[in-house]
# Entry
Amino acid sequence: MNLDELKKLKEKAQRQVALREGNKKYRVVFSMGTSGIAAGAREIMTAMLDEIDKRGIENVEVAVTGEIGLVDAEPVIRIEDRSGEKVTYANVNADAARKIVAEHLQKGKVVDGLAVGKTKEAERTK
Amino acid sequence: MFDQLSLNILDIGMNSLAAGATVVRITVIEDVPHDQLLIRIRDNGRGMDEKTLRDVLAKNASTKAGRKKPIGLGLALLRQTSEMCDGAFRIQSAPGKGTGVTASMRLSHVDRPPLGDLNATIFALCAVNQDADVQLHYRSGDQKFHFSSQEGKHNEPRRTQETQGKGAAAGCAA
Ligand SMILES: Nc1ncnc2c1ncn2[C@@H]1O[C@H](COP(=O)(O)OP(=O)(O)OP(=O)(O)O)[C@@H](O)[C@H]1O
Ligand SMILES: [Mg+2]
# Structure
């Protein structure tokens, strides 16, 4: 435990998040309930924010939800764009998280094979 | 389910943010002479009324929307770990007064999970809500520090020098 390291991390969190307040192109929603955290959501979020930072992507905001409705496929993230389009990624690991940043958030390309489709379905069955 | 206590702390801290807290104060004290570990997560969120708190304690009730079964895991897991490690678990909460979750453990208990990456937990809470004041009060032997995610942010050089008494943090409902 080290206070200096924490302060640096805080600045990083603030810098990363401050960049993406407001009406951004993408909104990344992390499933951060107990099951998401147990499956590794904290590490996924850390990896994604780090990759977003490294690539200097600014058009993204971050949010969390307690549940996305895919408890068996955690870690789950959902990417929403301004048009209301939602893409859900399930069973995400750190490599996948970085790939999603590079492909989806930077180039606007859905990562096939990782995306499990639109969440509207999952939401309806809640 | 969690192999690091810092994941429990993140989970309980997420409850606080979900309850609309603007101050989340995490206290971690490793008291080696007394062989005790104390973890407390205190917030100024909306709190729970008596019935909700009773249901949470008695049957792990959850008020999360969209649950097939209204059962919550977060508090139950921390309680289980704390009781398994010869500690005590307590929730204090009232509407409008915020919530405090306290878990103690025997530091040397064989089943006690390590704290793990507490920094990553604080980082995640800060990233989730950059307006909330996420605080960490940490003490282990001679090492002691207070962290606040809002310190210096509004030009207020707020230096916390000493360990404060219960509920004394600025803006944190006692
Ligand atoms: N800090 C808090 N402030 C207000 N209410 C809380 C707080 N923490 C917990 N609660 C209430 O207690 C319930 C149970 O919490 P618990 O963490 O055990 O489960 P959950 O958050 O509902 O779901 P899970 O943790 O499994 O994702 C919550 O649904 C909420 O109603
Ligand atoms: Mg919870």
